[in-house]
Predict the structure.
Amino acid sequence: MTSKDSNIGLRQYLDSGGQLVQPLPSHINHRTQLIALYQTLVITRLFDEAAVNLQRTGQLGTYAQSRGQEAIGCAIGKAMLADDVFIPYYRDIATQIQRGVLLEEILLYWGGDERGSCFSQQKHDFPLCVPIATQFCHAIGVAFALKQRKKNNVAVVTGGDGATSKGDFYEALNIAGAMSLPCLFVINNNQWAISVPVQQQTAAKTIAHKAYAAGVAACQIDGNDPIAMLIGVKQALKQIRHDGKPFFIEAVSYRICNHTTADDATRYMQQKALQEAEQKEPLIRYKKFLRQYQDWNDEDDSELYQACQLTVDQAIEHYKNTKPQADGDFFDYMYQDLPADLAQQKQQFLDDLNRHE
Amino acid sequence: MNELTMIEAINQALNNQMRANDQLFILGEDVGANGGVFRATDGLQNEFGMQRVFDTPLAESAIVGMAIGMASQGLTPVAEIQFMGFIYPAIDQILNHAARLRNRTRGRLSCPLVIRAPFGGGIHAPEHHSESTESIFAHIPGLRVVIPSSPARAYGLLVAAIQDPDPVIFLEPKRIYRDGKQAIEDDGSALPLDSCFLLREGIDISLISWGAMIKETLEAATLLAKKGIDVEVIDVATIKPLDINSIIDSVKKTGRCIIAHEAAKTCGLGAEISALLAEKSITALLAPIQRVTGYDTVMPMFKNEQHYMPSSQRIIQAAIHAMEYR
């Protein structure tokens, strides 16, 4: 895509009915590979539903759902290499799962426990980022470090459409372009910044157009199409490894859920729009595709769902059985070595605790 | 050993640490070919190359955010914010991320970075170039906030800041950047980041200060000595975490305390030191603690800045008041 091209076409392999609109490339047409991609979508969906249930029953804090946006995160997770670095925003559990973050760790995080971001299996990825768009700036720093390492790794950063209104987004994108940093920006355009629709957020023709001003190559992909997303992210990563320049993907999806469990989308989202979006969501679409092209049947489907549900249930058990943090643990990670004044405050805290017990 | 000004000592410390650590990178606005608007990074790009000393686009939040990303992956970034008045776009990154990354990941990732910024008044600079808002950062858990007051302490404290495993805000009192020279051994020796410096011993009054205001504080001490008042001077240097024990020890000895700072009075660091002294050693006090500070006004433009900044005369007046207090 060149900067002369002001009409960004939406890249797609599967239409909303699961029909191929162009032939699959040879590197992504194996049955096991296609089913493995489905498995990532299913486990993300089942985990998401379980997390909402835990929140509703008082066993989890406020939780940001990812329903309807699984294809974006799963594709990123599948396409990245282990030594690439992922810098997520807060709606990115799909990628986290693929990056080796344990389901119980994700639950710990949303259950109000910092240990959920001390990933046992994933050493260098960033934790979920709550302050909007700040993560883009971290990503260019990570990309700079990866460039120094000279092993052709890429920093992959995500954000929502809302984040593209913020200064940090433009600052990071501009520097990534100016300094030629190996950074992939993926924007999950789920059409809503909590209650404000994307049409009210910008006069830009697409979110992808915002990359042009920074001289960063960009494309727009159907974010509900798992195959288009996987191929698109893989291509982008390959290109970045080849030319060392940043790339920008606008993944177009729809948030078919509340912003978080503390939100009520019926206050601002039209029922009709929601119903239309639900017809296009990635899991239904992908299942139709597997049925038609891979002889996938209901029995296969229910087996896969059962296996995924078992994994989720086990994680919930682990989460519920996790021992609480040691008393005063929250003092211990402010600095590498606890300063004297803070050590005094910790001691005071422990003394008070013992006195009241 | 070379005789160096503070700005030269800062340059020397950066050079020394760049030689010692090939993962150290300097980033900021005009730090490359220009060597920084005050010349703190003069010659470094020539010596270490454009990869290790690089000019960023004009974007403070991204400078700090980028440094966080670099630090998280094992590099040692030293970022310059050209003036403290322009650090505020980066506050989100400093407070929400630099100060918290170690804790939020329970030590999995950390943020060993230094953010250098010139601060304070007295050089007839344009609007927004003269403020002292160090206590904003001193309020934030997870940061170290370090302020040198001489060339030698600038060298040793900056080496320490670069070697520290946690984020350090290193505020440079630009009024004394070129105010006198000191002999400095370029041996990479670090000074401690957890203690005050006792600059002058005395038994009558403890004068507590930091940064450029140490100049007025020492002047006042000399003049007070002529009046027979024996003053102890403490340079706090690392204002966060605060070494209150050294200050308490001094006040227990003298029974009188004056805190001098350029920053506005309300919620300035003087308030914290006063509160801690009241909590921990009120019975040692022979006179009320006094704060000699900037006023709770906007820092005036330079026609009036000398009226805003505490003078040695104001410190002397406060000292006499403390001595006469019954």
Q: What stands out?
A: Chain B has two domains: 2-184, 197-323. The two ends of chain B are 50 Å apart (CA to CA). The mean pLDDT of chain B is 97.
